Structure formats: structure tokens, C-alpha cells
Predict the structure.
Amino acid sequence: MRNLIQRIWSEDQGQDIAEYAVMLAVILVLVVGTIRLVGSNANNVFSNVASSVQ
């Protein structure tokens, strides 16, 4: 039992996966936030252009 706990504690592969998961989550938050920001601004620009064309 002690050997199993030491092996699990010293295993680095799980730590790498957790780091990649955190990096992916941060990137997704940035991408979604950027898309929402650009999307609302793009909608305003297209509305203004459509109003001026009419």
C-alpha cells in the first residue's frame, strides 16, 4: 500500500494533464470573451451602416 501511494504521489503525468486543462480553459475564456466583444461591436457597426444606407 505504501509503494502504491508513493508511486501515485510521484507521478508527473497527471500534473501535466491538469496544466494543459488549465491552459485550455484560460484560452477558451479569452476567445469567448473576444468573440462576444467583437460580435456586439460588429452588430452596432452593421446597424449604423444599414441606417445610413436607407
